[in-house]
Design a protein that fits this description.
This protein has 452 residues and is mainly beta. It contains three helices and 30 strands. Strand 21 and strand 22 form a beta hairpin. The radius of gyration is 21 Å and the shape is globular.
C-alpha cells in the first residue's frame, strides 16, 4: 500500500496527487472488499473485519485504489485503537499542557518512577505490546530476546549479543499510523492501528515503499574492525565520525541497513508523547547519562533493566536511560539523523537514498527557522516535519524543555538526543542542525537501523 501524504507531492509516474479519499466498511468477509463504503468508521462486530479503502486521484485524472483490513477478535478490544495527546502550545508547563484525547481519555501515562518504571495503561496497548527486542542478522530476525534480560532468548537460553557473529541487537517496531497537526492553539499528536483521514505511515516508508516493521539498534553504534556499524553490548561507542562515514558503515551491513533517519525518529517521538503525556522527557522518563564530563559509557548498561528505564534523583541521576528497548535514547552520545537537511532557507527530507546534499529530497521551501543555541517552545507540527523546532523562548523546565540549534543559511545536517555532558538540555526532543557534512566531533555518533 502506498503511503499517504498531505500536500503537493509526486505521485504515480511523477504526476502530482490531486486528492485522497479514505472510506470504511464492516464485513464478515476478510477476502473480498465490501461495497457499502462510508466516510465514518462503523461499528464492527466481533469476528468481523474493518476494511479501509484509499482512492488516490492523480493530476492526470488516473486513480489508484488500495485496501487494508483489521480483524475484530473475540476479546472486546476495539478493532480501531485511536490514542491522542492534545498539546496546548500556550501552556508552558510541559506536563499540564498535555491532555489525553480519543481512546486515551482516562488512561494513565507511563513514568520512569526513578528506576521503578510504571507503564501506566500502555503496556497492553498496540503498538507498545508488540515492540520486541531481537537478534537480527542479514535483514531477518534470528530470535526474540527476553525483554528483562537481553542476554537470553525468550525461552531463557543464552543469546550471543556481544560478539556480532550471531547478529545485532535490534528493537522491532510494528507499523502504526500517526497524525501530527495544528488545530488553533493546540498541537494534536495521535496514533492508530488503522489508516484514517489525515494520518500517515511515512515513518515506515523506505525509498517509497511502506514496510510492516522497522528495526532500530538497541545500542548506540559501534564500528567494528570490518567497518560495519553494529548494535552490540559491551562495546565502546563510536564517535568523531561524519554523517557520511556513519551512513557508509551502516550500509556495509547489507541492503536495507541505514543509520537513524528522521522519519524513524519521528515515530519514536510520537510514541514517547503518547506513552508519557509530558514534553519534559528527563522529568517523566529519566535524566539519562548526561552529567559526565570525562568518559562515554559502554553499551549494555541496561541489559537487565527491562524495556524502559530511567532515574532522576540522588546518586542515580546519571543513569543511562532506556525507551522501548532503546538504550541511550538520549544522552551519552548524540546521534546523526539522516534524511533531513536545512539550507537555502528551507528544509528537505527523504525516506531513503540518503546523502549529504539533499539531492532527490522533498523540499519544504517556505519554512523559515533560525534558532541559535536555545531552548524551544514550538515545533513545525506536521506529519512530515514533525517536531522540528520552530520558535525559541523556553527553558529546561518549560515547553519542550530541550535545546536546539537550527541553521538554514547553508547546508546543515542534524543530530539528536544530547551527549554525556549535555545536562538538562538533552532529551527526547533535543534536535540540532548546525554542522556541515564534513564535521566529525567527539560528541556525535550513530545508531544502526534496518529499514527494509
Amino acid at each position: 500500500m502506498a503511503r499517504i501524504k498531505i500536500g503537493n507531492i509526486k505521485g504515480k509516474d511523477g504526476n502530482g496527487i490531486a486528492s485522497t479519499v479514505i472510506t470504511y466498511a464492516a464485513s464478515e468477509n476478510g477476502i473480498t472488499p465490501p461495497s457499502d463504503w462510508q466516510s465514518e468508521i462503523p461499528e464492527v462486530a466481533q469476528g468481523s473485519y474493518l476494511w479501509t479503502r484509499t482512492v488516490i486521484t492523480y493530476t492526470d485524472d488516473t486513480t489508484s485504489t488500495s485496501y487494508t483490513k483489521s480483524y475484530q477478535g473475540q476479546n472486546s478490544v476495539s478493532v480501531v485503537e485511536l490514542y491522542g495527546v492534545r498539546i496546548d502550545t500556550t501552556d508552558s508547563n510541559p506536563e499540564t499542557c498535555c491532555e489525553y484525547t480519543d481512546n486515551a481519555v482516562g488512561m494513565l501515562p507511563a513514568s520512569g518512577n526513578n528506576g521503578a518504571f510504571n507503564g501506566g495503561d500502555w503496556l497492553t496497548r498496540y503498538p507498545f505490546n508488540q515492540i520486541k527486542p531481537c537478534l537480527f542478522k542479514n535483514g531477518a530476525v534470528v530470535g526474540y530476546l527476553n525483554p528483562n534480560n537481553f542476554a537470553q532468548f525468550e525461552d531463557g537460553s543464552t543469546a550471543d549479543i556481544s560478539s556480532g557473529s550471531a547478529g545485532d541487537v535490534m528493537i522491532e517496531i510494528p507499523k502504526f499510523y500517526y497524525k501530527i497537526a495544528r488545530n488553533g492553539k493546540y498541537l494534536d499528536v495521535k496514533i492508530s492501528n488503522a489508516l484514517m483521514a489525515g494520518f500517515t505511515d511515512y515513518a515506515f516508508s523506505y525509498k517509497g515503499e511502506v514496510k510492516d516493521k522497522f528495526y532500530i539498534g538497541a545500542y548506540l553504534g559501534y564500528k567494528d574492525s570490518g567497518g560495519k556499524l553494529r548494535s552490540l553490548t559491551g562495546k565502546t561507542v563510536t564517535s568523531s565520525i561524519t554523517i557520511g562515514a556513519a551512513r557508509t558503515a551502516a550500509q556495509a551491513n547489507g541492503t536495507g541497513y541505514e543509520q537513524l533517519s528522521f522519519n524513524k525518529l519521528t515515530a519514536l517521538q510520537v510514541l514517547y508523547i503518547i506513552m508519557f503525556k509530558n514534553l519534559n522527557s528527563q522529568a517523566a522518563l529519566g535524566r539519562g547519562y548526561t552529567n559526565n564530563s570525562t568518559a562515554y559509557r559502554d553499551t549494555g548498561a541496561t541489559d537487565t533493566k527491562g524495556m524502559t528505564y530511567g532515574t532522576n534523583a540522588g546518586a542515580t541521576a546519571d543513569d543511562t536511560v532506556k525507551f522501548l528497548g532503546i538504550e541511550d535514547f538520549y544522552g551519552n552520545l548524540s546521534q546523526w539523523v539522516d534524511g533531513y537537511i536545512t539550507g537555502g532557507g528551507g528544509i528537505k527530507i527523504a525516506d531513503g537514498n540518503f546523502n549529504d546534499t539533499g539531492n532527490g529530497y522533498e523540499n519544504f521551501p517556505n519554512i523559515s527557522i533560525s534558532i541559535t543555541g536555545s531552548y524551544f517552545k514550538e515545533v513545525v507540527g506536521t506529519n512530515e516535519l514533525a517536531f522540528t523546532p520552530k520558535l525559541y523562548g523556553a527553558s529546561e523546565t518549560t515547553y519542550f524543555c530541550d535545546r536546539t540549534f537550527m541553521m538554514t543559511g547553508s547546508v546543515f545536517l542534524p543530530y539528536f538526543g544530547g551527549d554525556r555532558s549535555s545536562g538538562a538540555s538533552a532529551g527526547a526532543f533535543c534536535f540540532l542542525c548546525s554542522f556541515s557534512a564534513s564535521y566529525a566531533y567527539v560528541i556525535i555518533g550513530a545508531r544502526l537501523c534496518f529499514c527494509g
